Amino acid sequence: MRLVTTRGLKEGHELAKPIYNDKGRVLVQSHVKLTRPIINRLLELGVTFVYVKDELSEDIVIHSTVSEQVKADSINTVKSLFHSFKDTGFKESSYLLDKTTQKMTSIVDTLINQIQSNDQMLTLMSDIFISDDYLFEHSVDVTIYTIALANELKLSNDQIRETGLGALLHDIGKVFIPEGILKKTSQLTAGEFETIKTHPELGFEYLRKTDFPLLVAHCAYQHHERLNGSGYPRGLIGDEIHTYGKILAIADVFSAVTSDRVYREAMLPQEGLEILYAGSGTLFDQEMIRIFRDSITVYPNGVTVELNNGAHAIVVKQNNKLPNRPIVRVFSHHDQVVKPYDLDLAKELNLTVVGYKL
Predict the structure, then answer these.
(1) InterPro entries, alphabetically (predicted)?
(2) If you placed Cys at 297, which of 31, 52, 123, 237 could pair as Cys (CB 3.0 to 4.6 Å)?
(3) Are the beta carbons of 105 and 165 closer than 8 angstroms?
(4) Which range is least confidently modeled, 51-65, 87-101, 112-126, 199-213?
(5) Based on C-alpha coordinates, what's the Rg of the chain?
(6) Which residues, in sequence order, are CB contacts of 272 under 8 Å at separation 6+?
(7) pLDDT-based confidence at 90, cuts 50/70/90?
């Protein structure tokens, strides 16, 4: 199966993987032949990429690090919990979070188990979800990226669980921000942006009154801090930022730029990494970015890429810990169709991927 942009879909394309909503229900089943109305509906729903069938890529396996059902269940739990906080208010709802500590920990433990039992690099692009609110899916995605990075940093299981809980709740302060500001599609005013910037402190003040460890509250407090002091709310510098805060900063930004937003389409993983690279050593911890890069899938299976020799190819399989050097299937050279053949870029060191072709 091949990963293509929704805008590039044509009538008659056959869907290779189903499209889910955030309740885990299938909205569009696999094997469906796409019509113009279906394609238009997918565009309206904000679906950026889909997997389609074609003969060239029919043997390519698309791997999900976290199962669709686990992710959907996690999103629904977060959604229900956050709505409870919003409905009952800031002070009055603290007891609700205390009573759900076990449920939240269970989500994190399930995600830890799925990530640690998987010997392949992390990929979320295989999950085609339609969510009715960015906040909930973002919270779960940030948790998955956080756990993966914390695991690669060789933190203890207790520390991985703690930072995972912090990631799941890092944006809890946003439930106290007016929805009109959170979902605004046009540019925020200076005043609206200042309101948005209060969410780390709101989340910290909320979480520190609960039964969660204080460092979980500090994850909410510090995920927008940056090494050079340009972050908020306190402008912390360097090691004034806790290790968890440094991890969350990377996971939060990567999830944000590789997700669909109301004002722009999702970036692909390599494009998201470029955002992190641009702030390496100044905004984000350089070694953590390197470790994060080596633990995620940069060019997902099924995506079409261009090589430095002018060839176009589909990614067939990953080489673990070598995200920039997958196994690819070349099908054209300088726009001339050739008989397909596979190349292992871990062995063909003179060849590199120079970009996506979607």
Answers:
(1) HD/PDEase_dom, HD_GYP_dom, HDIG_dom
(2) 123
(3) yes
(4) 87-101
(5) 21
(6) 253, 254, 257, 258
(7) very low
Distance from C-alpha of 146 to C-alpha of 127, rounded to nearest angstrom? 18
How far is it, in rounded angstroms, from Cα 289 to Cα 273? 8
In degrees, rounded to 5, the angle at the alpha carbon of residue 64 between the alpha carbons of residues 59 and 68 is 120
Evaluate whether 331 touches 340 at the Cβ level (below 8 Å): yes
Domains of the chain: 2-57 (3.90.105.10), 68-295 (1.10.3210.10), 304-356 (no CATH)
| Residue 328 CA, distance from chain mean position | 24
Return the bridge partners of 251, or none: none
Q: Which two tokens stand for residue 272?
A: 């998201």
Could you give the percent of the chain with pLDDT greater than 90?
56
Distance CA 119, CA 335 (A): 36
- The residues near 301 (Cβ < 8 Å, ≥ 6 apart) are 3, 60, 61, 62, 63, 123, 126, 315, 316, 317, 318, 326
Measured from the Cβ of residue 81, the count of other Cβ atoms closer than 10 Å reads 23
Beta strands in the chain (DSSP E): 2-5, 19-21, 26-28, 49-52, 129-130, 304-307, 311-317, 327-333, 336-344, 353-356
